[in-house]
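User: Here's a structure from my thesis project, written as structure tokens. My advisor, Dr. K., wants to see whether a designed sequence matches the one we expressed. Can you design one independently, without my sequence as a hint?
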């Protein structure tokens, strides 16, 4: 016991104590970062005008999409991915606020929605519901950095398309 007290009071003992303390703090920070499996969905979008309202240079030219006359037509692609560290499961999405792509303007309509890209077929991606104002997106799970792209053909401007959804315990 005396030898241990003598070692602890020596310069080597002080250095060893400091090294053990620093190693403990580093390990604690590392363990906390790895255990913090945040769930977070991110998205970005890009749009291309096909027809812009009021910019038709030929008065008698009529644009139609699936037998519907349109004054403006825009194609928007929305990429959605899991930017968190934790796996997002189907049941992590709140049923009262599902993942949806929508237009909040009653003057504009979503004409078509399609899945254009997804890496892993096992995520079981689908468009659950679709009408002129919204499309609800459904998937089995998304691992870290997994994602997909949805194409929306709509009337109105690119800024009319929005993405919304709530992850339980996430962002």
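Assistant: Designed independently from the structure alone:
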């Amino acid at each position: 016991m005396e030898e241990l007290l003598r070692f602890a009071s020596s310069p080597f003992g002080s250095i060893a104590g400091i090294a053990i303390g620093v190693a403990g703090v580093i390990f604690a920070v590392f363990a906390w970062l790895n255990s913090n499996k945040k769930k977070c969905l991110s998205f970005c979008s890009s749009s291309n005008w096909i027809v812009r309202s009021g910019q038709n240079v030929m008065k008698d030219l009529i644009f139609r999409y699936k037998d519907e006359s349109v004054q403006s037509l825009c194609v928007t692609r929305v990429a959605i991915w899991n930017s968190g560290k934790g796996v997002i499961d189907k049941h992590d999405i709140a049923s009262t606020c599902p993942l949806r792509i929508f237009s909040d303007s009653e003057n504009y309509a979503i004409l078509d929605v399609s899945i254009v890209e997804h890496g892993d077929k096992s995520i079981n991606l689908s468009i659950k519901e679709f009408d002129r104002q919204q499309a609800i997106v459904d998937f089995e799970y998304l691992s870290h950095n997994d994602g997909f792209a949805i194409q929306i053909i709509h009337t109105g401007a690119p800024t009319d398309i929005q993405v919304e959804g709530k992850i339980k315990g996430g962002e």
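When you compare it with your expressed construct, this may help: The helical segments are 2-9, 11-35.
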